[in-house]
């Protein structure tokens, strides 16, 4: 599916991860447009920014959207009221990355100015600034338990920050090029990162060491997404989707998709959706996950003769600690 998303060039696209079917696009026309995947009509057009939109993110329940601009300003819109909720000034340059906290009213932003800022959307204003990267911060992700934020940057590093203590917990080094994407495992203490060095690395968040590294690829890693049950990692490359396991590192499948430079991935009803943009158009692509192997039925490549075949860990059994999530009214243990 292809849509004419803006009157000028598209500069940013993101998928809502709640439904997996909401699409937000940002353009050089300084607008944020909201769409439903595979539907041609724009649902809403949000104005307020005065420079091109460089980064976008939708909150988990898809009621708020945050957009960062080339000038460094950030705006948060309430989608139900279709109005600007907050303007968050503070960065000195292009906003390269944004992420909403999984359950609190917080947003993290990363910039070309190398800083990461944590904002309280309700109370208005910057709570904390994390300094430590030496180049642009390309991707930010809060951990599922909401206690950490991971950052990926052009300085080849991935950093893990403790939100409670307000300090750096660990710096993961090993990538030899800009790190484009980072993603927490949905349950286990595991982090995946993808880089322009054409590798995907998996990091253990208890031992703070590399678990495995997948190095067989020909183009930069553009986006990564864990399957909701955590059994595998989907990685978006130019014109392909690859499905990985990490202990040991292996490739379960390669799906050729002509999505070009894919910009974001989401999952809805066992379908993986990918979006890409070129000039003023945005294209969406659907991969049927029921036809994609997600475990060791027939491994593709990455099995070497000098390594004994290890039986795969059964899906669902965990080698690592599981995140403690805050108990909500529906998840309190029964007395």
Explain this structure.
It is a single chain. The protein has 335 residues and is mainly beta. The protein has strands at residues 2-4, 10-15, 22-27, 32-36, 44-46, 53-58, 64-69, 74-78, 83-88, 95-100, 106-111, 116-120, 126-130, 137-142, 148-153, 158-162, 167-172, 179-184, 190-195, 200-204, 209-214, 223-226, 233-237, 240-246, 249-256, 262-268, 271-278, 281-288. The protein is 0% helix and 48% strand. Strands 1-28-27-26 form a 4-stranded antiparallel beta sheet, with no helix packed on it. Strands 2-3-4-5 form a 4-stranded antiparallel beta sheet, with no helix packed on it. β11 and β12 (116-120) form a beta hairpin.
Helicity level = under 10%
Instruction: Count the beta strands.
Output: 28
Taking pLDDT < 50 over at least 5 consecutive residues as the criterion, the unreliable ranges are: 298-318, 327-335
Write the CATH fold name.
Methylamine Dehydrogenase, Chain H
> Using only CA atoms, what is the Rg?
19 Å
Q: How far do the termini sit from each other?
A: 50 Å
CATH homologous superfamily - what is it?
Answer: YVTN repeat-like/Quinoprotein amine dehydrogenase
Largest sheet: 4 strands, antiparallel
Order of strands across the main sheet: 1-28-27-26
Helix/sheet category: mainly beta
SSE series = EEEEEEEEEEEEEEEEEEEEEEEEEEEE
Give the name of the CATH architecture.
7 Propeller
Give the domain tally: 1
Assign an overall shape: globular
